[in-house]
Task: inverse folding
């Protein structure tokens, strides 16, 4: 499981990816892998790398 923080729960139905900071060693092994959407199990979400993701806020992904 990957714990993800969001402040906009209602937008999760449109999520197609999860972004992580490429310098965050906790998640680099996930980059390029697929995750199961928590509300739509048939939808896969890819993990992408983006420097914009803060490693110090929320869960970091």
Result:
């Amino acid at each position: 499981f990957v714990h993800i923080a969001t402040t906009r729960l209602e937008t999760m139905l449109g999520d197609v990816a999860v972004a992580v900071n490429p310098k965050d060693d906790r998640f680099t092994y996930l980059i390029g892998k697929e995750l199961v959407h928590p509300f739509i199990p048939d939808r896969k979400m890819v993990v992408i790398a983006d420097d914009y993701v803060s490693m110090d806020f929320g869960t970091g992904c």
Observations:
- Residues 21 and 51 are 5 Å apart (CA to CA).
- The beta strands are 17-20, 34-36, 44-49.
- The longest strand covers residues 44-49.
